[in-house]
Known about the structure:
With about 180 residues, the chain is an alpha+beta fold.
Amino acid sequence: MSTARRAPFDLVHDCEVTLIPSGQRMSLRAGEQVLVMQALGGTVTVQTDSGYLARISAEDVRTLGLESEVLDEDVASSGPFDLERVIEQLKTVFDPEIPINVVDLGLIYECVAQPLADGSHRVEIKMSMTAPGCGMGDVLKDDARSRVQMVPGVSEVDVELVWDPPWDLSRLTDAARLELGMY
Length: 183
């Protein structure tokens, strides 16, 4: 489903959602109509009939029959550890309000891997949010952790939210600027 195509959808099942930007959990009921605002990284952002923005998890996206950009879950199938594969996985984590991944948004401040005695790797990530009050920090942090955990050779992932330096528009990649029409 394209992020540009906004389509109303009647929920066929009850589902738990995360309100944006507060990060609070809420239940939506079967039959409630939502408007699909963004469908990226396996999750869907909808506007509820009450006007709230909410994020539907990848698990609920599948059970509700919604379409979203398909994630490459076969990344963990084989091969040696490669930090570039970690970065590629981080590019599947999207801000629920802005159709840009966390790497191109400049939210990943540091991503390093340390080899462990058993031959696997510990990946340490420092990431920020576009605003300190964003309640979606833990949600995106968990998304980043679970996606990186899928990379071959990764046995530990630590994601830390940092606020220094504060995020600003200068951290956007050229691809993000183009997507947002900032050229």
